[in-house]
Design goal:
about 180 residues, UDP-N-acetylmuramoyl-L-alanine:D-glutamate ligase, about 15% strand, globular, 6 helices, about 40% helix, alpha/beta
């Protein structure tokens, strides 16, 4: 399985890559910040909440506003999935078929440095999609990975052994559905 993660790039390159990926059944995930329209047609986007609020013009306070913002981004982007990272409020994953799930923060107490946490999320989320996980489960694993790296100083990494150990402590029953 071939996947691509885009940070800022030229619109024509992204359009060509997104169209080709769809034709070939491949995954492209864009870690977007500002110009979300630039990434139209990619498999998934991972904006943070402040960038989501800027793009949609909605102040996200409460689940209904979050849902409106996620649905707008999903519709405008023509993506299959929209993963909005929300810092201390966790994440929200929106799917083209109308499903959405809220994913809580797994670590609120041992936060030393959030440098690279967003990059960890997008990389692990993309890996999960490429491995065949549902978007919801890929997002959960991304969130879990971020909960590990923020316990260290600097731009840290994690590994499968640490992910398994951390996953063993999570009650995944609340994520069914």
């Amino acid at each position: 399985m071939f996947t691509t993660i885009f940070s800022p790039a030229r619109r024509r390159i992204i359009k060509t890559a997104a169209d080709t990926a769809k034709e070939q059944g491949k995954i492209i995930v864009a870690d977007v910040q500002k110009d979300m329209n630039r990434y139209k047609g990619v498999t998934a986007m991972t904006p943070n909440q402040p960038d989501t609020e800027k793009y949609t013009g909605l102040v996200i306070q409460g689940e209904e506003r979050l849902k409106q913002a996620g649905e707008k981004l999903l519709s405008d982007s023509e993506s299959e999935y929209m993963l909005i990272t929300r810092g201390g409020d966790g994440m929200a994953i929106f799917e083209k078929d109308g499903k959405y799930n809220l994913i809580p923060v797994f670590n609120k107490t041992d936060v030393f440095d959030v440098t690279g946490a967003g990059d960890t999320v997008v990389a692990t989320f993309t890996l999960g999609l490429a491995a065949g996980l549902t978007a919801k489960h890929a997002a959960i694993i991304g969130n879990l990975a971020a909960s590990i790296v923020i316990r260290r100083f600097g731009c840290a990494t994690t590994n499968i052994k640490e992910l398994i150990k951390a996953a063993d402590k999570i009650n995944f029953e609340k994520f069914r559905g």
